Amino acid sequence: MGAESSPSTTSSSPTLVPAGHPGVAELFAVIAYGEIAAFYRLADDAKFSPSLRGRVALASMAGAEMSHFETLRAALVDRGVEIYAAMEPYRQALDAYHASTTPSTWLESLVKAYVGDGIAADFYCEIADRLDPEVAAVVRDVLAETGHSEFVVREVREVVERSPLQKDRLMLWGRRLLGEAITQAQYVLAQNEELAELVILTCGDLAGIAALFDRMQVEHTKRMAVLGLH
Amino acid sequence: MGAESSPSTTSSSPTLVPAGHPGVAELFAVIAYGEIAAFYRLADDAKFSPSLRGRVALASMAGAEMSHFETLRAALVDRGVEIYAAMEPYRQALDAYHASTTPSTWLESLVKAYVGDGIAADFYCEIADRLDPEVAAVVRDVLAETGHSEFVVREVREVVERSPLQKDRLMLWGRRLLGEAITQAQYVLAQNEELAELVILTCGDLAGIAALFDRMQVEHTKRMAVLGLH
């Protein structure tokens, strides 16, 4: 596809990053650890579920995270990268995200599962737009909708439509999720040069990254509205 | 495939049970709830893992349980059966099995994941041998090895080969797992007439069920030996 690696200097015409860029393995590794962390978060949040149906919904979402993880593991093996060592540098930031946004109710769990996954998907898919098509396909595949959002949307809407108090609490919760996600994303980028370079290449420049965070805010607001949180 | 529903009276020539037998949906439902219960048990046991690799191994096994669950859900939907209602009667016995065999160490978790899955697979696959081929294929598919046993075997053998104390403790643990599994399997059969009829049909008669439990004991002993527990 004629991917050139010469970095662009304007945010309006970012370069397609070649599959061989060292940041690609880093990108796969951070997403892979994200899947593991999300798996355990979802499994743990099931304790709040008022029904077997809710427990099954969370287990299905967690199962989908693991099938995405296997795709990333295969992609890393193809590159000769040892996945456990590769994931290690990202544990702290991702664990910190989950520790600072541990749900305390069933509805908080559901909003987090929906909104948190969405924030991550927005971030990585925007980056994927500027990656070699083969790499982009892996990223899009593992960040695709897991097909359980309908359940979450129905459960959350039903409650917030009749409880302004719950609605207010969950709106604050959603804001916190976005804030913590962006904070930890910045830590991750500050920590790993190759990944940071890859993100800068895909965004054009630092102003491009700021613009990306702004677009994530817009998408987040739309997603909250789908849940009745607007 | 010429499946006849006339029950056989000798244990040596059991009848092939037709796909339309009402016990088939019950069989799918009890296995489905088994997958959910195993999912949450594995996810919870990850707290004992000394390494990220161990956490990933358990999460992968749990993910495989969910992919099996989806197969069973589809099979039940095909039969017009509401899965949550269908699973409900089996919650108590399966939850009781897990409550009475909650691991307290990492090695107990691993032995349980390996040996417990094996016991269930022996039980259901022997039954599957006498079911309509289409039904049997679903059962065998969802009880297939999840491909993580190598990890468990390596981890357990390594410890028991150098610690006779650990070996003794884990041998008792294995015996308890088999005992509790058979106890709860009997409760399940005593509770549901259609499922009990299906199992009796597949085993020939009540003596055939006793013979099935004996064969499960033999297979269990072999499986323990693979772990170095003999």
Write the layout of secondary structure elements.
The structure is a homodimer of 230-residue chains.
Chain A: H1 22-45, H2 52-78, H3 83-100, H4 106-128, H5 133-142, H6 149-160, H7 164-191, H8 193-203, H9 206-226
Helix pairs in contact in A: 1-2, 1-3, 1-4, 1-8, 3-7, 4-5, 4-6, 4-7, 4-9, 7-8, 7-9
What does this structure look like?
- The structure is a homodimer of 230-residue chains.
- With 230 residues, chain A is mainly alpha-helical.
- The first copy, chain A, has a single domain, classed as Ferritin, core subunit, four-helix bundle (Ferritin, Up-down Bundle).
- Helices cover 76% and strands 0% of the residues of chain A.
- Chain A contains nine helices and no strands.
- Chain A has helices at residues 22-45, 52-78, 83-100, 106-128, 133-142, 149-160, 164-191, 193-203, 206-226.
- In chain A, helix 1 (22-45) crosses helix 8, helix 4 (106-128) crosses helix 7 (164-191) and helix 7 (164-191) packs antiparallel against helix 9.
- Chain A binds chain B through residues 36, 39-40, 43-44, 46, 51-53, 55-56, 59-60, 62-67, 69-70, 84, 87-88, 91, and chain B through 36, 39-40, 43-44, 46, 51-53, 55-56, 59-60, 62-67, 69-70, 84, 87-88, 91.
- Chains A, B: Pfam families: MiaE_2.
- Chains A, B: Residues 23-200 form the Ferritin-like domain.
- Chains A, B: This is Ferritin-like domain-containing protein.
